[in-house]
Amino acid sequence: MEGDCLSCMKYLMFLFNFFIFLGGACLLGVGIWVIVDPTGFREIVAANPLLFTGAYIMLAMGAMLFLLGFLGCCGAIRENKCLLLFFFMFILLIFLAELSAAILAFIFRENLTREFFTKELKKHYLRNNDTDVFSSTWNSVMITFACCGVNGPEDFEAVPHLPYPSSEKAMPEACCQRELQSREGTFVNKEACLAGIERFQNRQGCYTVILNSFETYVYLAGALAIGVLAIELFAMIFAMCLFRGIQ
User: Fold this and answer.
1) What Å distances lie between residue 34 and 31, 40, 182, 221, CA to CA?
2) Is the pTM value of this prediction over 0.85?
């Protein structure tokens, strides 16, 4: 009976890790294709910072799941205690990292307030200076989400900025409306926007826009994170049971 139970656990663990292996291989393949694709999709991704970062995150996740599934499959089907131990340690590290990230997110959640971002923007933003990482990141966010500042264009009235013509307001170019929401997108009317004509400006603050964009996915992401942690916990238990059962 004990042998049948061990055999059942072995094949269930193999099946479980085989799907992880396939998922990792798919993510890895898609990530590589997006980055090296010669047909022009690579340029679209490179022009959008969010897509560019997402492609590399997909690549890293694919590689991690690929390795994790491979170790689990080989360890289970070959009844290799060394591979099972590596599988257990690998999942344990991922589990602890995810748990630490969740705890840190909970502790520092108060820093993600509207007031915090407004204070940081007014302190560090340098308008159109794309050599500065902080300013470049904010410009990319404002262009991508068609928004301006944290609360709106008024945030830039007290922002230290580079010299600009007297005909232009303190509002940066990133707040001007574009035909396409990317750095290569053509301005609707840049001169009128910088001169203060509101209909050519993005008037809504980025905090509200981004919050509305991701609010739908926050609870889904939380439920998914809890589900992943539970699966990883069960995977570690199965790996240890199989490890102890192998003679």
Assistant:
1) 5, 10, 18, 24
2) no
Amino acid at 68: L
Q: How many domains does the chain have?
A: 2
Share of the chain above pLDDT 90, in %: 0
Domain for residue 209, yes or no?
no
Structure tokens at 63: 């590689």
Percent of residues in the chain assigned helix, strand, coil, to nearest 5 = 75, 0, 25
Same domain, 99 and 8: yes
Tell which residue, 1, 4, 6, 2, has the closest CA to residue 241.
Answer: 6
CA distances from 13 to 8, 16, 115, 241, 244 (A): 9, 5, 48, 11, 14
Tell whether 106 and 121 lie within a shared domain: no
Per-residue pLDDT of 197-209, as tens digits, reads: 888 888 888 888 8
DSSP secondary structure code for residue 157 in this structure: G
Structure-token pair, residue 2: 């004990």
